[in-house]
């Protein structure tokens, strides 16, 4: 009958061999499972590629059409700005053409009124003329100020001098 005698070194060799075999089996199982995971991942990527690329192409076309429309809108806004500038120029020309004679007539009326009053009070033609000129200049300046502040809210107007 054979005797089974083992030394401590033999037991360690058997334990090491068992460890390597168990590690190999565990590693093989893990690699098999990882292969399945990579197969599913590859399938997912192919499906995503198939589904996402048309969406990206459509989005690119949409962006191109939006850019074309924005270019058209840019032309429209440029035209609107040009029209607004033209209208502003026309309004300023008409305003100047109307306000200058109105200021002169208003100043003349104020000058005549104050001049006649001064002549009645003092019977001096020179004094009446100087009072009339001062009143006319003052009225024209007042009218300038009124036109300059016209259309502003009361809190935006400069304080009266």
Describe this structure in words.
By secondary structure, the chain is mostly helical. About 85% of the residues lie in helices and about 0% in strands. The chain has 2 helices and no strands. It has helices at about 10-120, 125-150. Helix 1 packs antiparallel against helix 2.
Structure in a nutshell:
The protein has 161 residues and is mostly helical.
Global Rg: 50 Å
Which structural class do the helices and strands define?
mainly alpha
Low-confidence stretches: none
Task: Determine the N-to-C terminus distance.
Answer: 134 Å
Q: How many distinct beta strands?
A: 0
Mean pLDDT: 86
Write the layout of secondary structure elements.
Layout: H1 8-122, H2 125-149
Helix pairs in contact: 1-2
Task: Describe this protein with a few key phrases.
single chain, 161 residues, mainly alpha, 2 helices, 87% helix
